[in-house]
Amino acid sequence: MVDSSERDRVEFPKSIYTSRSLEKLKLVGYQYNYMYVSKSMGFRALKELRLHQVEFSREGFNEEIFLQCPCLEILSLVSCCLASYDNSMMISASRLKTLEIVYGRLGLKPHVVIIAPMLSYFKFAGPRPMSLALSNCTSALEVIDIDIQEGLSNEGDKRKKWIIERLIDMLKEFRDAKSVIISLKTLEVLSTMPSLLQGQESPLANLKNLQLKTNWSELAPGWRFLRNKSPNVNAALHEDLNKLL
């Protein structure tokens, strides 16, 4: 793991690029000072690459790194800055199997194109849906995990409609996914304007498994509070969702 606390360019010894033993690499920027990495960086034997708060730009570190890692199977982008991309950014990796894009409030502005014929697992987490397109990577796709982390209660109707439509467009790119994991907040966003869903068919044509998830650890304090004076209470989670379907 390389941890940077400065905005200086990170230089690696030339021998590391041709190393046959380096299969995992994690680059971490310090707080909100993004790490700048040489544009020509590429690791021929790398199988797993995790980038945390690394800044992408046309002039410096950019998507060319993925083409220069021919063995890459796992890619994780956490809180990375893609703001320098005005139009689109391409993630192309012929052996990529797992892709995670997770970000906080840093913003993910560009349209992301993913070219990964062996991609089987995709995870996205962020406050709003992202604009993306999958090219030549649906046949192997098994699992997608979508977590939209903010509701729409503070948004106007026009903005709500735009966000929901972007989420639906995002799901359409995973039409061949066999298993979908969706957060409770994502389902809440999707259900905010029911009229947008009326008359539409689900874009998930080959779905075999649908899972709803939430962060129960955040709900545990309230649950314990309600039952702390009644240790013998018969407590159960009431599941009535299926009654509504």
Describe the structure.
- The protein is α/β, with parallel strands linked by helices and 245 residues long.
- It has one domain (2-220).
- Helix content is 18%, strand content 26%.
- It has 5 helices and 14 strands.
- The protein has helices at 64-67, 157-172, 184-190, 216-227, 241-244; strands at 2-4, 9-10, 24-29, 36-37, 48-52, 74-78, 88-92, 98-102, 111-115, 121-126, 132-135, 143-148, 179-183, 209-213.
- The longest helix has 16 residues, at 157-172.
- The model has no long low-confidence stretch (mean pLDDT 79).
Helix content: 10-25%
What is the distance, rounded to the nearest whole angstrom, between the alpha carbons of the first and last residues?
A: 48 Å
Helix and strand element order:
EEEEEHEEEEEEEHEHEHH
| Global structural class | alpha/beta
Integer count of domains: 1
**What does the average pLDDT come to?**
79
